[in-house]
Fold this protein.
Amino acid sequence: MADLEARGIPTVGVATTEFIEGAAAGAKSLGIDPALVFIPHPVQDRTDDELKKLADDHLEPILALLVKGG
Amino acid sequence: MTVLLDPTSERSPTIRPRLPRPERLDGLTIGILDIAKSRGDVFLHRLGDRISERGITVKHYAKPTNTRPAPLPLRQQIASEVNLVIEGLSD
Amino acid sequence: MPQNLPHDGLIAIVKRDCPTCELTAPVLGELARRGGLTVYTQDDASFPETVPAPVDDTALDMSHRLQIEVVPTLIRFEGGREVARTYGWDRGEWERLTGIAALGQELPQARPGCGAKNVEPGVLERLKIRFNETGLKSRHIEIGEGEDEQEAMYERGWSDGLPLVPPSEERVLRMLDGTARDPQEVVGLVPPDIAPATVEKVAINAVMAGCKPEYLPVVLAAVEAVLDERFAMHGVLATTGFVGPVVVVNGPIRRRIGMNAKGNALGQGNRANGAIGRALQLVIRNVGGGRPREVDRATLGNPGKYTYCFAEDEEGSSWQPLSVERGVNPDVSAVTVFAGFGLQGVVDQKSRDPESLSRSFAESLKAMQNVKLAPSCDAMLVVSPEHHRTFKNAGWSKARLYEELYRLCEIRGDDLVVGAKGIAEGGPSSLAGKTINKFRPGGLFLVRAGGDAGMFSGIIGGWSAGGPRSSLPITKEVRT
């Protein structure tokens, strides 16, 4: 993510809630403030339909971080 | 560990501010990068479909493996083909 | 290592690598036998062998705490306080301080000491950092072991695109040695963020730019100058035009810090020229927050926005230096900042008289920005030594040349109106029948610089031609 932003491409990352601490630590050590959206853990054992619903439910927050004011 | 002194006015609480975002998504291309963790593809393709429905161009990319950073040619390709990126799915 | 100083007693600080300390070894041995002496050794804890248990001060903590400058130093404590100290070997002094007669009878009367290790170059800074005595207030940025320092600085947006010297605490402390000014003194408020530039912040950016400490006073003067309201730094930064601050240095400091006023003075290769100009740009970027494609809207900009700083060639000139022309005493060093861009070369290898050469200059000056625009903008004419000689030989003062150039830069209004010469750009029809000068009164600036061979002078174009939103050149004296 940091690399793409460094190349001038605004980026939003999607991660599960399991990743919240890891993301914070990584950001701190790199001195960045990444735009992140968290979806409920776990993901691995979800059905396709459940994953599609998660995508639908989180579409707006994700897009909001890609526009001004987000 | 090296300590450097901050040359800035120290106004920003974070050290590297995020890139400014565009006003609107119309006319832009969004790249969706799958970092190759399992089941992320289903989630990300659904996002791509929903975004395309809005008339926004979507391009899909995938890292060859989750265990290493995206290869340089892929990063360069993405940077030259899209305006914005959604990257996932980390867990 | 005992950290406590004696309530009553003697302390000696020595190092093996010091002939005078070696000389006093027997005396120290005698004082140790009598009791009440603690010896701290800066380099080798087994020295002196004459003393049973010298204390290891190789970390220099005690030396720093006691502010030792010379070894050997002998200090007397009474009632928990230092009451006397002496340094070097002087029998009379040592006897007085210890109250013991006939010390070191076999030694010469006196011998000077050596420099203490804790005040060697670089060591004092490291000690101040270790003991938190730097007086520096800037936020610490930690770069992890796995991170590359250069990439880390680029990622944080500190760079103008070129590599930076990492601003470690040591480097910044050393840079601050270049000025007597307090690091927390506010030099000015930097647009667009209107953020305070302290001497410390300027020093940090000066380190990054590659300055030596002796350049810092010049950088400080340049920062002060651009932050003068009349320079209109915000406008200079935010313009879609070409300009950036150009720094001209006058006075004795030019030679003291090795600036270039001669061959390739406006080009690369001189550390002082390059680093001073760059430090100014980094302060604007990092402290003020002014960056390209954000507040800085320049369409093209110009390469001088990396750095644009040179010294005037004053020696052998028949003209007043720019600073003197602007009211500064010739013995005083000063900087003048000018909102300028690029370099428009003027080639004239045939003119033998000042009239002809003036016309060469004037024709080039009239083409600035657009032949159809007048008054157009201020301009600095950098006259090379060979060209200057033409004026010198004819007895033309600066004032005489200014007068001639202004006269030659009068333009027929008919040639300036929109549509004239088949060019849409131009002035309103009300200019027809009038005569308009390319420059506002006081809008031309002459300096001499360049190598001794070459009949080439240069025009540094300005931004505005006076009026409430314009930028005026500002001159500030260099203070140490």
Q: What stands out?
A: The mean pLDDT of chain C is 95. The longest strand of chain C covers residues 334-347.
